[in-house]
Amino acid sequence: MHFLTSLPLYDLTYDDVFMIPVRSAVDSRLDVDLASDDGTGTTIPIVVANMTAVAGRRMAETVARRGSIAVIPQDIPTDVVAEVTSWVKSRDVAYDTPITLSPSDTVGEALMLLPKRSHGAVIVVEHGRPVGVVTEGDCAEIDRFTQVRSVMSTNLLTIAAGTAMEDAFTKLVTNHRHVAPVVDNAGGLVGVVTRKGAVRSSLYRPAVDASGRLRIAAALGITGDIAGRADKLLAAGVDVIVLDTAHGHQDKMISALRVVRAMDPSVPVVAGNVVTAEAVRDLISAGANVVKVGVGPGAMCTTRMMTGVGRPQFSAVLECSAAARELGAHVWADGGVRHPRDVALAIAAGASNVMIGSWFAGTNESPGEAQRDGDGRLYKENYGMASTRAVTRRTATDTAFSRARKGLFEEGISTSRMYLDPHRPGVEDIIDEIVAGIRSSCTYAGAATLDEFRERATVGVQSMAGFTEGKPLHASW
């Protein structure tokens, strides 16, 4: 990356910088390869942050199908992480996982399940075969105790497994359907396909392991039985181990890294969080393949306001990625992204992947239950991983006195409403937006790969007025 002018004497956030276009031989954004080279197997440079209100099984499955990877949080019991890992790796690489009910189940049950998947349909199954489809519209103004057999559409369109996605799309359009069950040769339900899903399959490459199964990562803390927990996660088949703590440049982290590295894991080891070149060198020396960069930029984080500790994220990523490259390692930019431009700028600064948390919390695929506010708008609750709420969950087995002591120290928001966009409620909708932005950024820089983008990007420094000038106006002035 190059600066348009000399570097300022102060650190920079993503809002402080912009990228200029240069002569480009890249004709189309679709010619850009967004695969990372950090060993994590992502084909788009996005990682779902290890936040309890964000990264669960539905999220992990969905993003991996589009080339990303989700990190299951450290406060989830190991046996549950193992079960989630097995479940994600058993999902179909091409087709969405269906929501299923039997004909005798109720409309109320259907309405509870529908917001959990973006395809917006419940497949009614009998003896393993689809017999009907129920959408939210079918349930409108229907008594919640009514059986779904009374409201389901039985005029089924099914797609044979193995059908080319373009053909599946054409079949859906021709039959005026937006979603259809996918069936095997015996008529058994395999998954569901939507028009958007068929199109996305032509634009994304799934993040898969050597056996062709969807990838997933899991986080570890730096206290307790680190070796035992890491061994169980590796045995469960996780594809990336993430050693995670708010202050990553400490002796406990270095010791934990050495413990995990001594196990000679065959998967990448990520550690963080840090914001300095010295910290990056120490963690890589202790065994990290990737270092997580970011202290305080997250939407749920109050660390900077509570402690004064942290660093503007663009400068942190820029310095840390340069140090990592010198040692043949990589960094993930963790936090502070609010727009697709921020993701592109993080990559320009040197990140191999960008972690996203709160931005994905308000989607169908996040673990929380959708709720409605006083105006009827759907939202999900989000909270910081160092907040009282998170600490309470993490210390559930401690003594009451110990929990009370730890509960006094909060660095994070315990509840925040993340509203679902009614027109783009799924995580794939947000991924589409981000990826479109990154691809366009690469074409402006004349880059066909992320490596070329990091080399060719030219960045300038702007005032807040310059940042404001770039924002669209949704109403006249």
Structure description:
- The protein has helices spanning 57-65, 78-89, 107-113, 136-139, 165-174, 195-201, 226-236, 251-262, 277-286, 303-307, 313-326, 340-348, 358-361, 388-394, 400-407, 427-445, 450-456, 464-469; strands at 2-3, 17-19, 46-48, 69-72, 99-101, 122-126, 129-134, 159-160, 179-183, 189-194, 217-220, 240-244, 269-274, 290-293, 330-334, 353-356, 371-372, 378-382, 416-419, 458-461.
- The chain is α/β, with parallel strands linked by helices and 477 residues long.
- The chain folds into two domains: 2-93 and 206-366 and 422-469, Alpha-Beta Barrel (TIM Barrel); 99-197, Roll (CBS-domain), CATH 3.10.580.10.
- The chain has an eight-stranded parallel beta barrel, surrounded by six helices. A three-stranded mixed sheet has the order 1-20-2, with no helix packed on it.
- β17 (371-372) and β18 form a beta hairpin.
- The radius of gyration is 23 Å and the shape is globular.
